[in-house]
Amino acid sequence: MAAAITINQIAQHVGEEITLRGWVYDKTETKKVFFVMFRDGTGLVQGVGFKPDLSEALIAQLTALTQESAVIVTGVVQENPKAEKSVPQGYELAITAVEVLQIASDYPITPKEHGTDFLMDNRHLWLRSKRQWAIMRIRATIVHTLRNWLDDQGFLLVDTPIITPTAGENTTNLFEIDYFGEPAYLAQTGQLYNEANMMAFGKVYCFGPTFRAEKSKTRRHLMEFWMLEPEIAHCSLEELMTLEEQMIAHVVSVVLEKHQAELAILERDLSRLEAIKAPFARISYDEAVERIQAAYAAETDPERKEFLKIEWGEDFGGAHETAIAEMFDRPVFVYHYPTAVKAFYMQPVEGRPEVCRSVDLLAPEGYGEVTGGSERIFDEALMDVRVKNFGIDPEAYSWYLDLRRFGSVPHAGFGLGLERTVAWICGLDHLREAIPYARILNRKYP
RNA sequence: UCCACAGUAGCUCAAUGGCAGAGCAAUCGGCUGUUAACCGAUGGGUUGUAGGUUCGAGUCCUACCUGUGGAGCCA
C-alpha cells in the first residue's frame, strides 16, 4: 500500500507511488485516456489513466466516477508542465488503483456559470469550488496572521461576551434574544468590555462574531461578521494609526508570500497588493470633505455627482469613501470626524469639540471602511455628560462608568472588520464570499 | 423602509400578444494528452403565486411572494 499524502505535499514525491484521499473535481474521458481532477482540500491534481495500461476493473471504476464522488486513489507522481490547472502546478498522477467510497450523482454545481441565488442556496457545496477554496484559505491566513502579530506585540487575547445586557453602540440594529424571560442582545462590538479588559491587562484584543440587525442590502454588509478589536492603554490616535498601518501592511505581505496560487485563482491584481506598505496617508475629515467637494465639482455624470454631494458634518456614504480611496494607492486614514456622527465614548479634540479623536481606515479600490477607531473619553465628568446627552441609561452602564472612576487612563482602540479585509485582499466584489456562511438580509440558509 | 431590475427545463438564458426554444448538465454513441474539450442522438416544462384584459397571455394590467443591485445605516 502506497503512503497516503495530501496534494500540497506532492512535489516531494515525484516518481513515487502515493495514495490520495479526496473527491473527484472534474473528469474528461477519451477513447484512450481518463483525465480525472482530484481535490483533497489541500490542492488539486489531475490523475491520468492511459487505458491500454489499465486493467478492465480499473477502467470500469474510472468510468463510473462522477463529479464529487469520494475516492481513495493511488498512482505515481509525475512532473508535467502542462498540468497548469493543478495546485500546485506542474504535477499529475498516473493512476494505478482507485477505491470508491461513494458515487455522487447529479451534483448541482457544474463547471459552467451559475447565478448568485443558486450558489448561495448551495453554499455548503459551493465551498468545494476552487475559487471558494482560495478565499477560505486566505481568510484563515489573515486571521492567523492578525492574531500572531498582536500576540507578538504584547497584546493579550481576552474574549468578550456575545450575549450582552445592553447595546454597545447603536441602540437600534440589535438582535434581541429571550434570556430566560429577560431581553438580551447579541453583541454589536466587544469594545466596552475590551475597555474593562484593557484596564486589567494593558494591551488587549478580542476577536469574534458580532451582530447587526441592520436592514442593509449592499455588498458591504453582513448581519453577522467577525471583528478584531484591539484596545490599548496610554495610546494616542497617532500611535493607533501607526499600529494599524503596520499590522495591515504585515498581513498583506504575508498573504502575498504564502498565497500566490490562491491569488492567481482569484485573478487578483498583485500590483495593487504589493503597493500596500506603511506608512499610509493620513488626512483629516475637513480635508476629506474638501477633496470630495472638489471631486463633486469636477464630476460630469449627473447620477454619480448626486452621490458625491456632501456638506461638512455629514458622515460618508459608499461613494464618498470610494472617491477618497481612489486618490491613494494604499489605504488612507481619515481622522477627526464630527462628534455628532460618532459614538458617545469618543474623545473630543481639544479646543474643537465639534470633532473627535476618531479615525477610519479606508481600503483602496472601493472596499470601504476596514477599521474604525478612536481615543476614548477617560475623564469621568465628561463621560457622565456624554452618557446623559446620548440618552443612555447610566444604571445599565454603571459597570462601564466604573472604569472612569477607578484608575482611568487615556486609551484608544479600533475594530477591524474581517470580511471587508478578506474581500479587499482577495479582490471580491461582495462580502458574502468572504465568510463561509454569510448572513445577509433575508438569507440565513444554509 | 425606499428606488431600480429580474423570476421560463437541474443550471445559464432566448421566444413582435399567435406551435415554449438553445447552450450546458444528465443518459447513450463517436472522436481526441484532455483541462469551461469536441461531434451526434435521447429524455427533460402547471413560464414565481392569485386575479384581470383579450378570440388568444411567457409577453399587457393589478396585487402579492422571492431574488438581485443600490440608498439609508455601518465594519
Write the layout of secondary structure elements.
Elements: E1 3-5, E2 17-29, E3 33-39, E4 44-50, H1 56-64, E5 70-79, E6 91-102, H2 116-121, H3 123-126, H4 130-152, E7 156-157, E8 163-164, E9 176-179, E10 182-186, H5 191-201, E11 203-211, E12 224-233, H6 237-258, H7 260-265, H8 270-274, E13 281-284, H9 285-298, H10 302-308, H11 318-325, E14 332-335, E15 348-349, E16 352-356, E17 358-363, E18 368-376, H12 380-389, H13 398-402, E19 411-417, H14 418-426
Helix pairs in contact: 4-6, 4-14
The structure holds one RNA strand of 75 nucleotides.
Protein model, in words:
The chain is α+β, with helices and mostly antiparallel strands. It has two domains: 3-102, OB fold (Dihydrolipoamide Acetyltransferase, E2P), CATH 2.40.50.140; 123-280 and 328-433, BirA Bifunctional Protein, domain 2 (2-Layer Sandwich), CATH 3.30.930. The protein contains 14 helices and 19 strands. It has helices at residues 56-64, 116-121, 123-126, 130-152, 191-201, 237-258, 260-265, 270-274, 285-298, 302-308, 318-325, 380-389, 398-402, 418-426; strands spanning 3-5, 17-29, 33-39, 44-50, 70-79, 91-102, 156-157, 163-164, 176-179, 182-186, 203-211, 224-233, 281-284, 332-335, 348-349, 352-356, 358-363, 368-376, 411-417. A hairpin with a 3-residue loop joins β2 (17-29) and β3. The two termini are 39 Å apart. The model has no long low-confidence stretch (mean pLDDT 92). It binds one RNA strand of 75 nucleotides through β2, β3, β4, α2 and β18.
